[in-house]
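Progress against Task 2.4 (sequence-to-structure conversion) is shown through the following example record, which the project officer requested during the mid-term review.
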Amino acid sequence: MNSLLQGLSAFPITPADKHGIVDTETLGMLVARLRDAEVDSICVLGSTGTYAYLSRRERRRGIQAALSHAGRTPVMAGIGALRSDEVLALGKDAQEAGAAAVLLAPVSYTPLSDDEVFGLFETVAAQIDIPICIYNNPGTTHFAFSPELIGRLSALPGVIGAKNPVPDPENIAQQHAALKALVPTDFSLGYSGDWNAAEALLAGGEAWYSVAAGLFPEPCLAIVRAAQAGQADRARSLNAAMEPLWSLFRRFTSLRVMYAAANSLGVTQAEPPLPIRPLSGPDHVLVQAVVEELANINAGSTKA
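Structure tokens generated for the chain above:
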């Protein structure tokens, strides 16, 4: 198994002003917190990192800021864009900056076919030298990777893993096993969708690509380490303790909640890029209460 795409991968927000200029100092501080928490990897410019709202220049600045604070923690960077030439340019920027891998989502306006998506990955794999992780995020890209397409892509040089949404909890083990049979043994199958990630890890998932870990790495790491140790009851108990946050994610979307949480923690006063609006005052108060609750969870997880 490729060691790069294992364990907990934390996805921080990308603080920026209303003109889309990245606050590299704050982003660097967020990355340093994740480094110090000893997450297994950090991914900048994912969906939580609002990659689609940033220019090439600002994305490059964001990657450089992350790498300057990550220490030995591997950094993966999102390179999704509408045009293949843009994707290639972003991939080369990430490679030149020193990223350990890239995360590629097939962003589109006109719906893409399987062959078009395969061609995109084939082109990128042929022209950059760092590993590629498939970003299967149909909720935002409106393209869903079939198991068969992931199997085809896994044969391309440099394509080493996939970040998939978690299936329904009742079907996780079955669907994970079916997909595992279509890819090489060293191909990493990881999952997002934070509230079901514990079950995905217990079913054999190699990585959790976590929004929550971007601000709350310690309780998320505790879940991962319990699952890796085969401690199913502990992993589920720790996950259940995070339900107040998962409930907010489902209600308001994880992106809006993470910006509100970062504001509540005093990390940044940045807001999501317009036209996305920050949470209203009463909803922000709900997030503040959960943030305070998570502080207690964090204290417990570090003592366990």
